[in-house]
Amino acid sequence: MTQAEHPAPDRQAEAVAALAEAIRAAGASSGPAAEAAAPAGPRTDDQHAAALAAAAEVLTAGGAPADLAAPAVAALGEGAAGELRKDPWAVLALPGVRPEQADGFARGLLGAEAGPGDPRRAAALVPWLLEQAALRGHSAQEIGEIVTGLERLGLPDPAAALQEVVVVGRVMAFQEELPGHHGSSEEEPPTRTMLALERLALAEESLGEGLVRLQSTLVPGTDAEDTGPAAGADEDTEAEAGPGEHRPAPGPAAWEAAAEAAPSSSATALIRAAADNALVAHTGGEASRAELAALLRAADGLGLRAWAGTWTDHGRGVLAALLAGSPAADRVATLADLLGTAGPGRTEDGTLALDLLVVPDAQLLDAEFAATLLEALADGTRLVLSGDPAQLWSAGPGRFLADLLAAKACPAVASRTPDPGPIGELVSGISVGELQPVDAPEKEVVVLAVQDAGEAVHRAVQLLGDSIPRALGIPAEQVVLLTPGHGGGAGTRALNAAAKARLNPGPGAFGGFDPGDRVAWSPVPGTTLPGRVVDGDSTGLHVELSDGTRLTLSPAQTARLRHGWALTAHQAVGRRWPGVVAVVPGDAVAGLTRQWVYTAFGRAEQHLSVVHAAGPALAQAVAERPAAPRTTRLRAILAEQAGQEY
């Protein structure tokens, strides 16, 4: 977490003092004081239609699009029309609505009464600013950041507005020690005031509590319980024990034997750490997944109910391949499936019926998803969180694995297994801030400098459709284009348009798509599934995803579908391709970070082409900008629980 570069103005100090007093007066940080009333009874289609019509009428009266009626009813309930008339700025809670649009809507309904200092405006702007920060990965914000944001939006008295918003519980406020303070034990440590949306504050608090719960409830086995090679979990015991019943735990001698039999020193260290601890962090690159496989094999041999939960179907396939020939290969699922119906099942109390959970790509877990996962684990479950700290963080707010490592809240095992070949050497250098040429005798890495975005698109599509398949034998279907963003002259839109024109030209007969098009489907924000269009008919567009799932998308759903020859690096996390063409246009240089370059380049398994118009700025970004900063509370929560300074 970073501090502001310049001294805060006096009004920010006043806001801190006012908020601190407000928190003391309220007695404690709390969530929203008023909750939406429960519906009187089951909703009928007629009631829903009437609610939509009423909301559309109010929206139209204020000059807003009637299309917002459905989102308004979804967000505000079937009394949305009344809520909007009572508080026009409530429209700011709807997707895509900005403050200036909400102000216009308020003026349309209230006329001259809609002033910039209206308390209802302030009550809507503070959560909106925190939601915008959440989109950038922040789970909390320092009060000074919110004060500055309110000033930019023309709020006359931000300090007073913030005090009122906290008192009524629209957001949660916290006092915490400044990070990095090392004063004497007699000094009162300096503090800062943090603001957070209720859902994110509760998620990080829940994470801290869940991690402590796992660590405090582990009951290690004893050697006296060992009855054989499986440490007391022979076939008869396995057959008799149900999902929630006691199973004899392996003792230290059995764990040590499994560790000594591991295929590498890093795998040995990981197995020993898992033997003694309920919570273990494991870090490394792609090659370190073999250590997770070794742990899962060992756990299977010890008779433990061990599962792995991966971020993507690709990650599931990679880990299952490493476990080929072991029963453990059948206990690898995506996290979505694990928490659903394809996992180990549930015990009577609703927790997952397992003894050990291994989570690769844990850097991709945001605060809310991680909290959900922790809540699904029973007391005494072992949890191994494995990830690559150099990669991009989660799409959602938080930096779960990074905060866990920074707080030193559990043992951490760093893999000593390097990623192989020229690509491995390249990304290894990037991870420490060095972008250096590497020897690539088989053309594993090729760097092409271009003059502008137009040339970048031309060269990238040429590599995708001709050069890489012809020279290296990697089919175009196994090559992906990666770029920093969607817009601009060499963003995903421009690259996908050029790739379609070359590789699968057609009229776009089905909502802009044709059979054979590569696509990217996002069922929820932050999740991208590659696929291809099979065909389309009167029932919808038929798409086959990378995991073999087939979908039929309605015209409304097709609006969330994108062509998928080109993706952003954020969309590509958790996956790798035999061939990658990383496109770095000159207009994207300002936003580049070491994390982005490392992640994009590391998606390549066999070949990486880098097409860039960034010049020396690419190496400069790798050296000087490690990552876009994120403000969270989890590290402070974990440090407080451990009684540490942070």
Task: State the gist of this model.
This protein is an alpha/beta fold. 41% of the residues lie in helices and 15% in strands.
Fold and architecture overview:
Helices cover 41% and strands 15% of the residues. The protein is globular and about 75 Å long. The strands form 4 sheets. Strands 6-5-7-8-4-9 form a 6-stranded parallel β-sheet, with helices on both faces. Strands 10-19-18-11-17 form a 5-stranded parallel β-sheet. The protein has a 5-stranded antiparallel β-sheet with strand order 15-14-13-12-16.
Write the layout of secondary structure elements.
Blueprint: H1 10-26, H2 45-61, H3 69-76, H4 80-86, H5 99-110, H6 119-135, E1 141-142, H7 143-152, H8 158-167, E2 172-177, E3 191-196, H9 198-217, H10 235-240, H11 252-260, H12 265-276, E4 279-283, H13 289-301, E5 306-310, H14 313-322, E6 332-334, H15 335-338, E7 356-359, H16 367-375, E8 382-387, H17 400-407, E9 412-414, H18 421-431, E10 445-449, H19 453-472, E11 479-483, H20 492-503, E12 518-521, E13 529-537, E14 540-545, E15 550-553, H21 555-558, E16 561-563, E17 566-568, H22 569-572, E18 577-584, H23 594-601, E19 604-612, H24 617-624, H25 634-642
Parallel strand pairs: 4-8, 4-9, 5-6, 5-7, 7-8, 10-19, 11-17, 11-18, 18-19
Antiparallel strand pairs: 1-3, 2-3, 12-13, 12-16, 13-14, 14-15
Helix pairs in contact: 1-7, 1-8, 2-3, 2-4, 6-8, 9-16, 9-25, 11-12, 12-13, 17-25, 18-23, 19-20, 23-24
